[in-house]
Model the fold of this input.
Amino acid sequence: MGLLAFASIKLGSVYALLIGNIASFAVSFYFVGNMHGDTLAAFFKPLSSEQTLIFLSVLMLILQAVVAGITYWIILRKRRAMNPYRMASRSVK
Done:
């Protein structure tokens, strides 16, 4: 999942993060909906399987947003530190 966050930073677009999460949720929701019976009902307690999927999907989206923000901040700091004109422009003023 961190790969989606990293890809969204490299592509410069949050759409990769959103599209990946929507596709993952849709596929998971399809398979959860096709589970027949209560074979895994005890596994998902106290939530239903659909509620657990929604909860985990939102949690992963939040975590990916945090990873994307931290990655963007690190890349921005590296670019500022490697800019040779940054020091020159300060000394000219």
